[in-house]
Design brief:
heterodimer, A: mainly alpha, 2 domains, 0% strand, B: 72 residues, mainly alpha, rod-shaped
Chain lengths: 231, 72
């Protein structure tokens, strides 16, 4: 019998460690980018050592970020098995944790997507991207930390950032819901279409329409890629 | 906006709509709000990031082009 609590602890520790490494590496890379522009500090480090540090830290940030992002998926799988889908839907604190983990995952995917799209040189030579890229990593890591803190509460332990929650008056067990975002759900629930059409048949129509939209978009993207290859 | 990004947004919205109807059918407003919040969060992060990156790189590309023209 597998102890899923232990497996989840291992996967969470691994992805948090990798993302911490990615964040440190990207901050180092950012500092290397600005050090030569600073007075006095720029004279201390040689160009060669800075270039070497830049190359290594950039690669470390990407590989650790990739490993950490895959690790978030592994943690999500082990966490879902541990708490069971039914348990997640009933507990507000676990729902908060899932939401924060999804946001953290989105930020790290964004981090990797920017790196893959623009590459090392373009990111660090661009005035906006050189600040935005580390910022995305920083926000992503902040979400990972908050998720870890909720995990600590679920395990019956206190985390080191507990005082921040106390200072801000945030309770982890309350559902974290932003009112303007829930308005959309109210709009759908109170939709006049629901009274006109049977909900289950309407649901079938929505699913078929969505499947057609997704298929059309995929065909469109595929045709675009094909015409690019042909030209 | 690029085709890939539009495709991603459409997939997100399509999934969001499906989930909304499933939750509406089950009559669970708390779960509905939670799911909406997650999907809207993802959409907001994606759009804001896309706009910042797009505007940032376009500005730099314009400057580079201007610089090249001045050289010529």
């Amino acid at each position: 019998m597998v102890d899923w609590s232990g497996v989840h602890s291992i996967t969470v520790s691994m992805h948090e460690g990798m993302l911490m490494l990615a964040l440190i590496a990207v901050i180092v890379r950012f500092l290397v980018n600005i050090v030569p522009k600073l007075p006095v500090v720029g004279w201390v480090f040689s160009d060669e050592s800075l270039q070497k540090t830049a190359r290594i830290s950039e690669n470390v940030a990407f590989i650790a970020g990739l490993g950490g992002t895959i690790g978030i998926v592994a943690s999500a799988v082990s966490g879902t098995i541990l708490y069971t889908p039914g348990g997640i839907l009933q507990s507000t604190i676990v729902q908060n944790k899932v939401m924060i983990a999804i946001f953290a995952f989105t930020f790290w995917v964004d981090f990797l997507a920017i790196r893959l799209k623009f590459g090392d040189e373009k990111i660090w030579s661009n005035r906006v991207l050189q600040f935005f890229y580390p910022l995305i990593g920083l926000i992503g890591f902040a979400f990972v930390t908050v998720g870890g803190s909720i995990g600590g509460t679920l395990a019956g332990k206190e985390s080191v950032i507990e005082f921040i929650f106390a200072y801000l008056g945030i309770h982890k067990t309350d559902p974290w819901i932003l009112p303007p975002i829930t308005d959309f759900s109210k709009m759908v629930v109170n939709s006049p279409l629901q009274s006109l059409v049977n909900v289950s048949s309407m649901l079938q129509i929505v699913i078929v329409v969505n499947a057609i939209i997704v298929a059309l978009v995929l065909i469109y993207i595929g045709m675009g890629a094909r015409s690019k290859t042909a030209s | 906006m690029s085709t890939n990004f539009l495709g991603l947004l459409i997939i997100l919205f399509a999934t969001l709509t499906s989930l909304n109807f499933i939750m509406a059918m089950r009559n669970e407003p708390a779960l509905l709000a939670w799911l909406n919040q997650i999907f809207f969060g993802i959409i907001i992060i994606a759009v804001v990031s896309y706009l910042i990156v797009g505007l940032g790189t376009r500005k730099t590309a314009g400057k580079e082009r201007k610089h090249e023209e001045e050289h010529k």
